[in-house]
Amino acid sequence: MSDIRHSLLRRDPLSAAKEVLYHLDIYFSSQLQNAPLPLVDKGPAELLEEFIFQVPKERGAPPKRLNSLQELQLLEIMCNYFQEQTKDSVRQVIFSSLFSPQGNKADDSRMALLGKLVSMAVAVCRVPVLECAAFWLQRTPAVYCVRLARALVDDYCNLVPGSIQTLKQIFSASPRFCCQFITSVTALYDLSSDDLIPPSDLLELIVSWIFEDPRLILITFLNTPIAANLPIGFLELTPLTGLIRWCVKAPLAYKKKKKASLSNGHPPGKIAKDLTSGEDRDCHQLYSKLHLSVLQVLMMLQGHLTEKNLYGRLGLVPFDHVVPLVEEINRLSDELNPLNASKEIELALDRLAQALQVAMASGALLCTRDDLRTVCSRLPHNNLLQLVISGPVQQPTHGPLPPGFYPHIHTPPLGYPTHAAHPALPAHPALPAHPVQPFIPGMTFPYRPIR
Q1: In which element (H, E) is residue 312 found?
Q2: Which of 123, 131, 210, 136 lies closest to 169 in space, CA to CA?
Q3: CA 290 to CA 354: how far, in whole Å?
């Protein structure tokens, strides 16, 4: 590698970067013939950092910087390389060696260049780069995935108005990337503050994707070899938990945001108020559509989990994530005055109850009713939630039931005692028969229509 480095030092930055990719392609192609998962040696890693990310090898040397035009040309070189490389395994290894965080000073440059490369791939629809980015999101700690998601949201939701349509079009080009992008976005925007409420354009984009094909959010799960124990600190296999968090917390988070804007001493004008209320109304409708799609996906899961022999072994909605969600709902309910936010609290708890019930029935949530009772004991009262955490009653064996009798399928809601059956009422005495009126022919009946 030292001879290659000396030859690269005599080149300009762009041709040196292109030459590095060429040498790495030869190096990893030969490595893949001997091992399915080759290790990146120190030599190739140092070449990447010095000639792609412009990190000087000598200590104390000033960092090299490409100007904007050179950086754009470098991104084009990288896009063209991944587009022209026909072997998927080589593409994946090169992409991983380029952008896997190493815990050193090159990581900031690495993440900045990755965000720009994926953003360019979205703009020009370079599917191989998007597929590589999808695998990268799956294998990289979540803290870095969130940084990539933020860069894409800034480029397509905040920087240029209307550019969200460009991002929307990759739905059919790379569904795998769309699935991983949704998972990382739900990890980024957790609705814990006003700044972490997803932008309306982003929300509309994600809802349109999922509503068009709810199976989109299961693509990674369905196409990945899975062990029962998932690694900690990485993105989840599906965005289900994050989407449930969005749907459940949205009514309370938007109510809190509206309350904060009114309590700052500067109430909005009529036009601004009408615009804000209209946007909020649209967002609430989007969350309703999203909640329906999430429930539909949860209902599909039992068959998929059984097919993969993971039913009862893998919880795609981890109970450890349900606990903090319930605590956040309880905190938001306490912060908001129940007298002024009763509808929002009721809606949030209804959605929580529906998601918990369907997730447990499909095997996505692995816990007992006693676990749910303990976790939800401090939440405000909600009839539907009480039915869910009470659960169905196991009926004893009995003979044929009399006509018109149906056994109870649920225990009474917690806090309400059962009542003994009322005694039978005495029979009423028979009423006397009415006298029969004779029919008189020729008598007219006065008829007046009702006005």
Answers
A1: none
A2: 123
A3: 13
Burial of 27 (0-12, 13-18, 19+ CB in 10 A): buried
Q: What is the dihedral of CA 230, 140, 360, 321, to 10 degrees?
A: 100
List, for residues 66-92, the tens digit of each pLDDT value.
Answer: 899 999 999 999 999 999 998 999 999
Q: Hey, is 410 helix, strand or coil?
A: strand
The rounded distance, in Å, linking the Cα atoms of 36 and 59 is 35
pLDDT confidence of residue 398: 47
* DSSP character string of 21-40: HHHHHHHHHHHHTT-SS---
Q: What is the pLDDT of residue 263?
A: 65
pLDDT digits (tens, 9 = 90+) for 422-445: 566 666 666 655 554 454 444 444
Long-range pairs for 128-131 at CB < 8 Å and ≥24 separation?
128/82, 128/83, 128/85, 128/91, 129/78, 129/79, 129/82, 129/83, 130/170, 130/173, 130/174, 130/176, 130/177, 131/88, 131/91, 131/174, 131/176, 131/177
Note whether 91 and 128 are within 8 A (CB).
yes
Task: Give me the numbers of helices (H) and strands (E) for the chain, helices first please.
Answer: 18, 0
In a 3-state reduction of DSSP, which class is residue 70? helix
Handedness of CA 92, 97, 99, 102 (dihedral sign): positive
Alpha-carbon distance of 69 to 354, in angstroms, equals 53
Give per-residue pLDDT as tens, 113-154. Answer: 999 999 999 999 999 999 999 999 999 999 999 999 999 999
Residue-level pLDDT at 301: 94
Distance set, CA 122 to CA 116, 171, 176 (Å): 10, 10, 13
275: number of Cβ within 10 Å: 12
How many Å apart are CA 184 and CA 195, to the nearest integer? 16
User: What is the model's pLDDT at position 39?
Assistant: 63
Are the beta carbons of 187 and 235 closer than 8 angstroms? Answer: yes
Rounded CA gap, 319 and 362, in Å?
Answer: 14
Alpha-carbon Rg for the chain, nearest whole angstrom, is: 31
**Could you tell me the sign of the dihedral formed by the alpha carbons of 76, 78, 83, 85, in that order?**
positive
CB count within 10 Å of CB 79 equals: 17
* Contacts made by residues 314-318, CB under 8 angstroms, sequence distance 24+: 314/226, 314/228, 314/230, 315/364, 315/365, 315/366, 316/221, 316/236, 316/237, 316/238, 316/240, 316/241, 316/364, 317/240, 317/241, 317/244, 317/355, 317/359, 317/364, 317/365, 318/236, 318/241
